Prior knowledge:
The chain is mainly alpha-helical. The chain has one domain. Helix content is about 80%, strand content about 0%. It has helices spanning about 1-10, 15-35, 40-50, 55-80, 85-105, 110-130, 145-165, 170-180, 185-210, 215-240, 240-260. It is globular.
Amino acid sequence: MTELIQQMLFPMPMxxxxxxxxxxGVFLASFVDGVAGGGGIISVPTYLIAGLPAHLALGTNKLSxxxxxxxxxxxxxxxxxxxxxLGVPSILLALAGAxxxxxxxxxxxxxxxxxxxxxxxxxxxxxxxxxxxxxEERGEMPETxxxxxxxxxxxxxxxxxxxxxxxxxTFLILIYCNFAKMDLRTAxxxxxxxxxxxxxGALVTSFLxxxxxxxxxxxxxxxxxxxxxxxxxxxIKNGAxxxxxxILVVLALLAVxxxxxxx
Length: 263
């Protein structure tokens, strides 16, 4: 294990340009993720642009995003914006869903999901545009029904995260707020817990496979902490005023990413 860690410290040469790209890209991605989720759409390409091979980029991204997401989650927990009764089972179901999604990915062509997303994304964007604001207060509905919606969403979107991934946090916020009638801040706090759990699971897998650039990932983690701290703070303070436009940006970036990969 010690030898494996030593190999992962510098699995390839690290340049000043590589570090600069990672710091700028990861900060922007983490800010977006701290506000409304979906930062992986920016951070994964950042590591690829910096020159890392795909598997190393994905593993290194999980290292920096895990550390950064823990800061966002911590701010929401400290502010009391987490529903633990929903949060704990959501984490477990999201992990189970991610495992199933990963297994499904190995059996099916990923292009099918990407074509489906091209149909779904415009519909989601229209829903966001028509929505005047996200709820600042928890809506009235039976708690059993709310729990069923939240837990089902955690499992299904968790499976999506394991199968493909980008935009997971954004989709969860939309479902938690619109269908489970959670207030935006609590929904965001619970989403951060789910994302942190799935990130940790993926990081452990990448680490055991030796696919993490530890030093570069820790440098990215510093930028991730700053981005998540500022982004989550703005989400807590400004709520829907900032979350809605950021969600639209994330959906647009995801659409561009999907189209680019299909071409």
